[in-house]
Amino acid sequence: MDTKDINLSAELKKYFGFSKFKGQQEQIIKELLGGKDIFVLMPTGGGKSLCYQLPALISEGTAIVVSPLIALMKNQVDAVNGLSSDEGVAHVLNSSLNKSQTKQVMDDITAGKTKLLYVAPESLIKEEYLEFLKAVKISFVAIDEAHCISEWGHDFRPEYRNLKGIIDKIADVPVIALTATATPKVQDDIQKTLGMNNALVFKESFNRANLFYEIRPKINVDKEIVKFINQHKGKSGIVYCLSRRKVEEFAQLLQAGLDQKLRVANQDKFLMEEADVIVATIAFGMGIDKPDVRFVIHYDIPKSLESYYQETGRAGRDGGEGHCLAFYDPKDIEKLEKFLAQKPVSEREIGLQLLNEVVGYAETSMSRRQYLLYYFGEKFDPIKGEGALMCD
User: Fold this and answer.
1) How far apart are CA 131 and CA 166, in angstroms?
2) Where residue 285 falls among pLDDT bands split at 50, 70, 90?
3) What is the predicted pLDDT for the residue at 260?
4) pLDDT of 187-214, one tens digit each?
5) Which of 40, 50, 225, 349 has its CA 20 to 30 A from that of 79?
6) Stated pTM of the model
């Protein structure tokens, strides 16, 4: 494709209504359209999805987007379809579709209507899908949440490991891998597994200077959280718990303990500004793109610093303040260690190493921001660095 003649800024305006690109978006898109493999490390809220959505919309053929969560795909498909007056610009292809829906998706792709096809890695292995995709024009492949490929990543999915072989079967096209969290080790692993050794790497700083990081000992945690929410009345926040059961218990407690105006409700209500505070498990929080979340509270400390970074990254995406408060109890770590003891050896060792980093962060005497950024391979000056005073 001849990218020299395309006015990317005009296309950005036309589809997304933005007058200028953020960070390295334009450069990434140019290189992708020019046929290069790309690796993008961009913290949450940096505008990762635009890096493949825009080039897909203006390329010939269909871009395949591999994504781990059905809910996440649905959100993105709705968002992309909202950008265009034509029907079927974006589709999902996964186990949730019936026969006639699947046929509709395939017809739209064959007719050249569909620019973005979201698939789960499991779907790509299906013989019928594979044969179909081989026969149509594919523009490129995007792998979102690419850290799922790495055993060192916090969301490892074994089915992601085979992606390279599957993509090679479908078409010889550029691949763009994107993640919001990857330590240098994970980054290496992703590139090796995808055979992207010559990929161009675009890395944005992991420093979110507008976020305030705080750890408190886990004592009277229910009371403390209710008090915190009451002090931030009318502001949006997320409370993360590790287990579903805890989510339900705490949500009930909040509903009882707060006035009716502050309802804890489901995701749609939260995104539609009807609910201020949402109590969620980690899996749920992945697709939350609400820009004005003012606080993220961790009822339980997460299993890895990557998870923690990604979850706190839901706060302050509009550039305004964000308070990240986590409750830490060494007993919780012991529970997680016991849970790991039942796992196979390699998984257990990795899990313990990731937990050690979490303990280090919670108990550190250095700047929390400095500790976090160092973990992601970034240097930070705890005195002069941007956001230096924003931690407890």
Assistant:
1) 11
2) low
3) 47
4) 888 899 898 888 999 998 889 999 999 9
5) 40
6) 0.77
Quote the tokens at residue 237.
């926040």
Nearest to 362 by CA among 384, 331, 338, 317: 331
Sheet holding 322-328, edge to edge: 211-217, 322-328, 293-298, 236-240, 277-280
With b meaning 16 or more CB within 10 Å and e meaning fewer, what string describes 28-47?
Answer: bbebbbeeebbbbbbbbbbb
Give the pLDDT score at 268: 57
CA-closest candidate to residue 313, choices 336, 331, 289, 333: 289
Residue 56: Cβ within 10 Å count: 23
Of 237, 248, 250, 219, the C-alpha closest to 331 is 219
3-state secondary structure (DSSP) of residue 293 = strand
The pLDDT of residue 263 = 46
pLDDT digits (tens, 9 = 90+) for 57-109: 999 999 999 988 777 788 888 888 888 778 889 999 887 888 999 999 999 99
Nearest to 206 by CA among 332, 371, 61, 62: 371
Within 8 A by CB and 6+ apart from 301, the residues are 308, 326, 327, 328, 329, 332, 333, 358, 362
Task: Give the helix/strand (H/E) hosting 295.
Answer: strand 293-298
Per-residue confidence (pLDDT) for residue 247, from 0 to 100: 85
Nearest to 277 by CA among 323, 211, 245, 233: 233
Contact 93, 51 (CB under 8 A): no
Q: How many residues are there in the chain?
A: 392
